[in-house]
Design a protein that fits this description.
With about 110 residues, this protein is of the alpha+beta class. It has 3 helices and 5 strands, in the order E-E-H-E-E-E-H-H. The protein has a 5-stranded mixed β-sheet.
């Protein structure tokens, strides 16, 4: 199972959205930190931070994912929030169709 997860800076600014597997979420919940590798081989350290947020019936503690280095976080493979997925799929489909059409006009060796 993959969970779209927002990664924040230590100033609580959203940096990126990652699609994290359940085992990574479990590690963050239990150990409060983990290291992910970027496609380029860099390491990105993520930490779980507990914050108190207002809810309809008072306040409730929640965990958020925080990074100390937003450049490292931006180098990770991005994920998409549920509401963004259809637009992303449409863009990917359009790019693939354009690529196919363009390849028709390139000289064949």
């Amino acid at each position: 199972m993959v969970i779209p997860t927002v990664v924040y800076t230590t100033d609580f600014e959203p940096v990126t959205v990652l699609s994290l597997r359940q085992d990574i979420i479990d590690t963050l919940t239990k150990q409060r930190k983990c290291i992910l590798k970027t496609p380029e081989g860099m390491e990105c350290r993520l930490m779980a931070a507990s914050v108190v947020v207002p809810t309809h019936d008072g306040f409730s503690p929640r965990d958020i994912i925080v990074t100390l280095d937003e450049v490292e976080a931006l180098a990770l493979q991005p994920g998409w929030l549920s509401g963004q997925r259809s637009a992303v799929n449409l863009a990917i489909s359009t790019i693939r169709k354009l690529k196919t059409e363009l390849l028709k006009y390139l000289p064949k060796d």
